């Protein structure tokens, strides 16, 4: 290396460091004097932006499965599909409604014109409802006739609200991104339709294939989406749950697709309790709670945190299965109370003291209607004996054996015929 290069290299490095460190700072200092925002906010934003992407991933841009799992552990779900998030990383941040496509903008004009017509119909329907409510009951043809007309008009109003927004691409985008407002009819309609496309079919298949219907209840038409959680684990309908995991009360996510609030009764029934004396099976109520409020926006129900003074009739009893017995079906039913009126808790708690009560009896006694269901199963495992001892199960040490059924005479093996 030439002596001139040796002498000039430290000078060049010093100039480069001065340029990279000093000049941007001078530019930032000169431009801040013309801004009206607070310096602390800018510092906070610069610190957030200066963090590496893997430490602070953006849910709208993350594409790595590892970072997606990191966001899910934090309780933040990635927005949209992975392909869409990958495309957004290299595209300009243009608002969805301002996309520079002529066909798209012309189509939006047509949709906006159609929406204006629907809004006019909504306003006219509201005026009709107001006029009907203002007239006396005698002129409307009686109280029952007036109520039926109002109910029909309110349903038509809900349908108009749905049709006014169902073709809006912004609404569809928000719903697909999980940002829908469940207080609006359109998002409740879209969520109900998505649930009925797949998850409801799976649920109905499981509760009918495993004979929960009609073993526990004669009929159940699910209209609410019920999800079951033990800890952080989501339980699919019919899934086997470890006895140690099910020793604590689960959490429910009951999604209602209607406006308003409902009071429901939640029951957990084991329909496979062995009865050796009669060589059959009995029922056992593992949990019973009344007057539980649910709505389209308030969906979380923690069975362990419900009030013992006004809701919990029978507390959670861990499900058990004796060694040698077949698996047990634990059915969870969400039952709507009549007219969403609260039940007399003290009366119910005084009458329902036994866990052997049938759910059919409760349904007929308190006029309940099954609107949701779920199912999980339990069987003998390595933790079952310990759980039995903790709850004081009387027959924990007994092992059941299936009774051998003698074959019919013509099916018996006759050694003489083999000679």
TrEMBL record:
The keyword Thylakoid is assigned to this record: no
Keywords: Mitochondrion
Location, primary (coarse class): mitochondrion
Extent of the signal sequence: none
Keyword Zinc included in the entry's annotation: no
InterPro entries membership: PEBP (IPR008914), PEBP-like_sf (IPR036610), PEBP_euk (IPR035810)
Function text: Component of the mitochondrial ribosome (mitoribosome), a dedicated translation machinery responsible for the synthesis of mitochondrial genome-encoded proteins, including at least some of the essential transmembrane subunits of the mitochondrial respiratory chain. The mitoribosomes are attached to the mitochondrial inner membrane and translation products are cotranslationally integrated into the membrane.
Family: Belongs to the phosphatidylethanolamine-binding protein family. Mitochondrion-specific ribosomal protein mL38 subfamily.
Protein's name according to its UniProt entry: Large ribosomal subunit protein mL38
Naturally occurring in which organism (per UniProt): Neosartorya fischeri (strain ATCC 1020 / DSM 3700 / CBS 544.65 / FGSC A1164 / JCM 1740 / NRRL 181 / WB 181) (Aspergillus fischerianus)
